[in-house]
Amino acid sequence: MTATIYGMPNCTTVRKARQWAKDNGHAAEFQPYPKMADLSDHIPRWFERAGHGLVLNQKAQNFKKLDEAKQARMLADADYAVQELAAEPRMLKRPILEVGDTVIAEFDEAAWADALK
Q: Tens digits of per-residue pLDDT, 55-66?
C-alpha cells in the first residue's frame, strides 16, 4: 500500500517524520503543500477521514493572526476552511500521513507505525 507524507518541506516535525519513516523501512512519497496543484481536492478527504478540527492547525501562527470571526468561521464551515487552507497551507497540520483510507494529521510514532504495517 502506498504511503504519502504531506507537509511543509522546512518544518522540523515533517523532516523528523520523514526520517523516522525512512529509518523504520517505510517507503513514503513526500508531497509538499505549496507545490500541490490539487491541494483543495485532498483537504475534504482529510477532513472526512481525520477530522476537520484535527487537520486545521489552530496553533499555526497564520491561524492565530486571523481575527476571531474568521477563525470561528474556519472551524464551523468546512467548505470555507478548505478554500482558506488551500490558499494558505501553513494553517494545515503537519505532517499528514495518508495510507489507503487512513489519514493521520500529526506525527505520532505509534499511530504511524500501526498505519504503516
A: 999 999 999 999
